[in-house]
Fold each of these.
Amino acid sequence: MVRIGIDAMGGDFAPKNIVLGAIQAYARIQPKTRLVLFGDKSLIDAECREAGFDAAKFEIVHTSQVIGMGDHPAKAFQQKSDSSITVGFHALANCKIDGFASAGNTGAMLAGAMYTVKSIPGIIRPAICSEYPLLTGKTAFLLDVGLNVDCKPDVLYQYGLLGSIYVKHMMGIDNPRVALLNIGEEEEKGNLQTKEAFKMMQDTTDFNFAGNIEANHIFSGEIADVIVADGFVGNVVLKQAEAMYVLAKEQGIDSEYFNRFNYEIYGGTPVLGVNAPIIIGHGISSPTAIENMILQTEHAIKVRLVDKITEALDK
Amino acid sequence: MVRIGIDAMGGDFAPKNIVLGAIQAYARIQPKTRLVLFGDKSLIDAECREAGFDAAKFEIVHTSQVIGMGDHPAKAFQQKSDSSITVGFHALANCKIDGFASAGNTGAMLAGAMYTVKSIPGIIRPAICSEYPLLTGKTAFLLDVGLNVDCKPDVLYQYGLLGSIYVKHMMGIDNPRVALLNIGEEEEKGNLQTKEAFKMMQDTTDFNFAGNIEANHIFSGEIADVIVADGFVGNVVLKQAEAMYVLAKEQGIDSEYFNRFNYEIYGGTPVLGVNAPIIIGHGISSPTAIENMILQTEHAIKVRLVDKITEALDK
């Protein structure tokens, strides 16, 4: 039995979009998977009723508080002890659920992860990892996209390992190519941080290092499956990539490729390096984004992603 | 009399594209402007002849050496003393030309600037500044795009001033809005560098600070005319922006907006904070890009850009 925890109160359109997304996911999850919704039971029941869905197919854990998007993450996580996020994380830490997904307050999700399940031993800093479309029709992965905005080179090195394991097990790509986002392809290019990280990665056997990659080459898929950057740079690249979708749309361009920059296709952003599968969704997640986030969480549980990372660090 | 120096040997398609660009520019420069080409006289003459253009309309300074794209910038600048770049910079330092433009080895151009005309007093670090298209039909400016990849906050602050002066005088925008590229709009967002830079910029009267800007908002023009970033981040954003043009083209999309991401429209990248107008073009510059680079150099001379920066720092 796999149990996926879902924060029914997280996101700009909660609980409606979350419940609708969970209903959509229900039709696609494995027979032995249970969806556990954390939130206001009467509101969840009402959304199920409105959608003509039997709420008894979910497990609902009633919570009376909500951590808002504007709340101070760490404070709210500790003070709002009956919030959907806080109760969800305690369930996760107590193994009552096997993974936890939320489109709510990102900072509170990260605080919850660090306070309860904590980092995997050996992890310097966890990372969040985003998927983006390649011209080949496949996708590639970028990390970190905002968790650690001041990274030392050894953190970047470890991101290479984390990204490699994630893509290997979640996407089934053997020996994925990992590149370091930089401002030139040559070894000597970069700032102090990337130059040092390049040296550390150069001869590694921990992952398949493909060298430096420039931002104009990350979309072809010719060089890499995983792109490593610090959280500041990764976040900038991700937001600019999201802009490409919006700009194309505003120009009335209906391009199959640019449409694939719509984040809704990709579910959420996994927190890598913590002791449980934790996925954070976009605040404005649609039901489809929530559905994908839930399926992604199920997949991470199924492939035992956390064990794979733990084993790699234990070597 | 204004004299614009042009490196006829710089760029992947030199001297052909440079000479053709200079011929195009010749038709558009002011009557009192002279174009001074540095390079192999026989090759320049041959290109003029082939184009049916009277080479005597140019002033040609014969040079026997070329700094290649693969040459070590600083070494080549000093050792190849009869190269077009080295001779050009000495002419600039001796006031025989009023500005210098090249699509050649960027590092050698920067080395030349620092060895000969040098930084304006008070400048911590010069910057290079790129133009990119806004949805409004206008353009905005991003700096630094690659000169200083490890920036202290006070350098970012000064980039705000440099960008503001450049856009005011080159684009005729009074009191241009300057924003700090960051990963959130709120004051407390960012890495150590941007958080500190925000504090320095917050109450400045040196330029019109518009706050933080995220990478997905830089294209609307709603927030800022000038975007400040360190050279690493700025270079990444610029290359990703260039990719947007290429990706659209590869998708067979003929969008007026995405077409405006073609660098050829914008001439070159000015080096701001040095004691002369210096413009560096893309290595693969077309004749039109060269033409625009020359007109941009003329404009910088005409508006006395260097004096404006010097005066602002002298306050």
Note: Chain B touches chain A through 39 residues (CB under 8 Å).
Amino acid sequence: MSQPVEFYFDFSSPYGYLAATRISQVAGKYGRGVEWKPILLGAVFKVTGSGPLPSLPLKGPYSKRDMERSARFLGVPFKLPDPFPVSTQAPARAIYWLEQTKPERIEACVLALYRAYFVDGRNISSPDVTADMLASLGLDRSNALAAIAEPAIKERLRSVTDNAIERGVFGSPYIFVDGEPFWGSDRLDQVERWLRSGGF
Amino acid sequence: MSQPVEFYFDFSSPYGYLAATRISQVAGKYGRGVEWKPILLGAVFKVTGSGPLPSLPLKGPYSKRDMERSARFLGVPFKLPDPFPVSTQAPARAIYWLEQTKPERIEACVLALYRAYFVDGRNISSPDVTADMLASLGLDRSNALAAIAEPAIKERLRSVTDNAIERGVFGSPYIFVDGEPFWGSDRLDQVERWLRSGGF
């Protein structure tokens, strides 16, 4: 099997959520897996000088409308949560815990955490809420909570985020196909053609 | 015939160029015309605090790659010009001159000016180069040059740009379909569905 598609995302990113619902299917059509890489956009914004979409003049109000419309366009359930955005250390660390323990459960957990936030409005920034979600998928709640507070897991999230910035990642979702970078849920059509043709 | 699709763009915007090559066909399928509205993104960036894509950390290098790849994806000829970006008062004012004199020539002139810059690398920020382009399409060169320097035409460009900012326009291309805003050449699929369905 060829190199997996690398999928960088923040759990508080609506476009990350939209793309997450489709990336496995797109990659799978071409015999590829997905490497799920949650990062913290807050650290990225310190480098780019940007900020969360709702905070940006003119772009903020448009973005809210565009998120909702893009979800309808793709037929994906979506409700802008409140609070939005939130810090996403807890769910991101949970994924790096699974990376070390049950990597085969990562995708289901990513999608469940995203749905919890962007469909059910649950505040996944809370370690307890994140642990509840994992428990509802049959994972061990107290081990999850311990992992979220564990220095090695914290360090793993920090180093993946730092490495993402070094590779030029400035938003979410940010996808690499054999080293070629694609930013945004609206690049999935180009991602697909790249996978099919090996470049264009 | 229903209300035309409003197409706001800056002549120095690669994604504006890409969308300009397709918007008439998309609108025409649903019996709509296109209202071409060149604006000055520089004035917009003063409000948003943003800047031209190549100047942005991390986003700059990605954007150059994405512009070229998006052009190949769409099958549109494209070569990133040097200098880039340029100020676009001259070509924008030329379009508002045509608005008053030969509106039926606007579309051909927009596309010719865009091609001159993004395919042939001609510096359309120069009034002489813009006037040459219009002359090559059979328009009067000296009248074009005079119009580019005319206070009423300058004021028209300023007022369309100000009005665009009031309407929330923060980038190029920025398209309104019956009041619904769409930002970016990658929203043409949503524009098309909106035209077909009257919303979704």
Note: Chain B touches chain A through 31 residues (CB under 8 Å).
